Amino acid sequence: MTISETVIEKYHRTTKQNHLFSILIPSWNNLPYLQLCIKSIRLNSTHSHQIIVHINEGSDDTLEWVQQQNDIDYTFSNENIGICYALNIAATLSHTDYILFMNDDMYVCPEWDAVLMNEIRRIGHKYFFLSSTMIEPYEGNNPCVIHKNYGINIENFNEARLLSEVQSLKKEDWSGATWPPNIVHKDIWSFIGGYSVEFHPGLYSDPDFSMKLWNMGIRLFKGLGESKVYHFSRVSTGRAIMNKGYYTFIQKWGFTPGYFMEHFLLRGKKYEGLLLQPIQSPEKSLKNLFKRITASFKKVNSIF
Known about the structure:
Layout: E1 8-11, E2 21-28, H1 31-44, E3 50-56, H2 62-67, E4 72-77, H3 82-91, E5 98-101, E6 106-108, H4 112-123, E7 129-136, E8 146-147, H5 159-165, E9 174-175, E10 182-185, H6 186-192, H7 205-215, E11 221-231, H8 245-253, H9 257-264, H10 282-296
Parallel strand pairs: 2-3, 2-5, 3-4, 7-8, 7-11
Antiparallel strand pairs: 1-4, 5-10, 6-11, 7-10, 9-11
Helix pairs in contact: 8-10
């Protein structure tokens, strides 16, 4: 099936009602995690938000469950159209000034949104990209994450222990906002055209989104250590046939995603203000040239 043959439906059922964020949640047959995610938004948010779910396929009763939730707007595709298309169609239902992307396997912690909103008010303009800080159960080399195991899946998730300990989990604000939950002003989202569908179904669409923001002149990329969400991770990516986004990124921008995140965004380093244009050494230039040549031989067409 091609995208032109996919059935796309939209249902805008809520009014603004003092909503601050439009929370976009793509979901692909992941109902228990989606229910937990939305439960956490309802229970642990300081402010009221518009929730917009994109239902990919929905063969696990996700569609029926969402239809019963009158406080959720939703879009639906009868096939899995991936993250990029899902986010872009869901964003058309947004009725707030801020668009926030969240994975369906996330659990937001108390005051997650208050920290983001306070920072937005402190900034005082729309030229920013902010991320919450993920708490993940798996050890890894991501310097933007708090590593603490409160369950690797929904069956052994220790919600009570997470809530009792979350205030003791400390992370300083960090540079290089890229991953969800992330938030931008709706005008900025529209200006750069949302998520790039050449990265369908979604691998490396996150750094591409940040690169588009960089190209329009945004230099405020900040992760907030006090805005925390628990992320089970590996729930959907293990089921999907992934695109060759690494090579798509190189072909599009001329260097690797890792180079962009390390040298442009200073990923995971202590946040110290607006970022500067990096100066590329001859050695790095040569390495990126080799990467571009290698990438040019890779077939990276969409699998849709």
